[in-house]
């Protein structure tokens, strides 16, 4: 009887927790009575198309420390891609090759760890597999710092990124408050269509710090005149005003205030930059006070030194759960988290059909944003707070963190 094996790949933007999910998959397979080997596809789905695979079971058996180190290594150990599969009704050549590869390597389950666009790949592979009667189970494992996947309470990677954002805002506040002069600091935070990460800046507030004093999210139309009035009002109350804005804030007509009209990625998403700088120039021109903008771009995506233990633990468990679900025959699905309570924080691991998740996006509920659209409400704070809890020990050598060696990805650079 032929052995039953698995294959796993990672896709989309990096996070602190995506390798923890990979470690969970490897651990699940190593403990499985059904699967023998787990293969890793380098650079997402393109690794299958290029026959660029690695035997993860063999690698992890060589060194028992690898799995623990993998959990705390940021970004993707297997590499990533931004490859969009065509509609198989238009061109099924990629699908024919992928499922032939599954047959060659005796693959019984394929796990794809990623965000919105990656779940589009899970959906397409699931639909094609059903069409040809393939027995391969296709299961998505969520990750994205944007926290915008539907059907799950939150996504791995978000909690650690939120912890980084909140910590950075508190440090920016300390930097700013030392000067007794009128000033405005605008912090631009990633988030094209959903403001979850920017909202996490509110977690920087404590007994002595009320910054950020204003928060603007893409879920609410942005008005420049209202913004200027908000800042002026804050300047009457204090010397230093700190503002958090999502990169994707847009006006009432839906126009991004910072988008390049001609720049889009392979999935058709506008390439954004400059919301903070746009508002910096506006404040400087209209209010005439000291102002600077800070763009927190990719820094929080791989800040493993500020990882949330809650985040990494959940990511690892989701990887294990994906393997268990495939053993039960589940396919065309994504593993999910259902929140039972905020305090004490309690969750359950479940799954949802991928057709309800792919190509959809979850926004912050309007009631979690104040009426003026310039701050968040307590229910959102309650939702966010548990996700950043706990610290993760990282091994250091010569003062620098020790992560997994990713030189195998160098040939793709």
What does it look like?
The chain has 413 residues and is of the alpha/beta class. It has 2 domains: 5-157 and 305-361 and 392-412, 3-Layer(aba) Sandwich (Rossmann fold), CATH 3.40.50; 159-302, 3-Layer(aba) Sandwich (Rossmann fold). The protein has helices spanning 18-30, 45-49, 56-62, 65-71, 93-104, 116-132, 158-177, 196-199, 224-237, 275-287, 309-327, 378-384, and strands at 5-10, 38-41, 53-55, 107-114, 137-142, 183-189, 214-216, 240-246, 259-264, 270-272, 290-296, 333-341, 346-353, 396-397, 400-401. It has a 7-stranded mixed sheet, sandwiched between helices. The chain has a 4-stranded parallel sheet with strand order 7-8-6-11, with helices on both faces. Strands 9-10 form a two-stranded antiparallel ribbon. α1 runs antiparallel to α4 (65-71).
């Amino acid at each position: 009887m032929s052995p039953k094996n698995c294959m796993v790949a990672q896709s989309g933007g990096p996070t602190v927790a995506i390798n923890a999910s990979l470690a969970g998959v490897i651990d699940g397979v190593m403990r499985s009575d059904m699967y023998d080997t787990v293969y890793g596809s380098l650079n997402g789905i393109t690794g299958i198309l290029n026959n660029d695979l690695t035997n993860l079971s063999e690698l992890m058996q060589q060194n028992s420390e690898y799995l623990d180190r993998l959990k705390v290594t940021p970004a993707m150990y297997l590499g990533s891609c931004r490859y969009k599969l065509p509609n198989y009704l238009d061109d099924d050549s990629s699908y024919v090759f992928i499922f032939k590869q599954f047959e060659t390597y005796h693959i019984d389950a394929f796990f794809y760890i990623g965000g919105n666009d990656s779940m589009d790949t899970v959906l397409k592979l699931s639909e094609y597999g059903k069409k040809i009667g393939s027995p391969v189970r296709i299961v998505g494992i969520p990750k994205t710092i944007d926290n915008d996947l539907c059907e799950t309470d939150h996504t791995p990677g978000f909690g650690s990124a939120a912890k980084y954002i909140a910590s950075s805002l508190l440090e920016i506040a300390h930097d700013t408050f030392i000067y007794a002069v009128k000033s405005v600091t605008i912090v631009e935070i990633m988030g094209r269509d959903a403001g979850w990460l920017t909202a996490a800046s509110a977690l920087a507030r404590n007994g002595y710090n009320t910054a950020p004093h204003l928060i603007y999210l893409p879920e609410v139309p942005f008005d420049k005149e209202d913004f200027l009035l908000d800042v002026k009002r804050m300047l009457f109350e204090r010397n230093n005003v700190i503002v958090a804005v999502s990169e994707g804030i847009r006006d009432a007509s839906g126009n991004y205030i910072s988008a390049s009209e001609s720049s889009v990625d392979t999935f058709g998403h506008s390439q954004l930059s400059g919301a903070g700088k746009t508002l910096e120039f506006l404040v400087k021109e209209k209010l005439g006070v000291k102002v600077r903008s800070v763009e927190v771009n990719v820094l929080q995506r791989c800040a493993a030194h500020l990882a949330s233990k809650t985040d990494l633990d959940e990511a690892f468990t989701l990887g294990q759960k994906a393997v268990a679900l495939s053993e039960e025959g589940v396919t065309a699905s994504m593993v999910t988290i259902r929140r039972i309570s905020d305090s004490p924080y309690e969750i359950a691991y479940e799954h949802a059909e991928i057709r309800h998740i792919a190509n959809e996006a979850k926004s912050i509920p309007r009631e979690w944003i104040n009426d003026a659209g310039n701050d968040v409400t307590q229910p959102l704070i309650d939702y966010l707070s548990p996700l950043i809890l706990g610290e993760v020990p990282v091994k250091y050598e010569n003062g620098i963190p020790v992560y997994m060696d990713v030189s195998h990805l160098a040939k793709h650079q």
